[in-house]
Amino acid sequence: MRGIILAGGSGTRLYPITMGISKQLLPVYDKPMIYYPLTTLMMAGIRDIQVITTAHDAPGFHRLLGDGRHFGVNISYATQGRPEGLAQAFVIGAEHIGNDSVGLVLGDNIFYGPGLGTSLSRFQSVSGGAIFAYWVANPSAYGVVDFGADGIAVSLEENRPPRSRIMRCRGCTSTTTT
Known about the structure:
alpha/beta; Spore Coat Polysaccharide Biosynthesis Protein SpsA, Chain A; 5 helices
């Protein structure tokens, strides 16, 4: 399985600090925010990772992460001209993905909890796609996923009036070409 960290966007809700540095390079406690999704992919056993970011922010990620060698992973980079939704990550990363399965996580998401590594490693054998999500009281502030009666996701919505209260955690995996 290969990994993609989507670290684009302009972080407008954090202006003015994000005018000078990518949101994903800002510190969260004692490390840059991007270390958290990188660690999430590593806990899932993923060692071949592509960081997708803007041309403006790419040099900062290169300086921080390099080729990934010092993390025990292989990191490559791709640039995103302008954000056009999560599915764009699969288009930009198509060459990186090849015929493999892929795990996608956003560069500003922090996953934490007991058994997380075990949960993540189970995605290695999922047929089709899987998504992390949980119920929230204020779904209009998030992208949401709507599930059918059979528990299968039927839609992902961003910046629209939601049809459910289950927030999409902005991380997913796929074993099929998207």
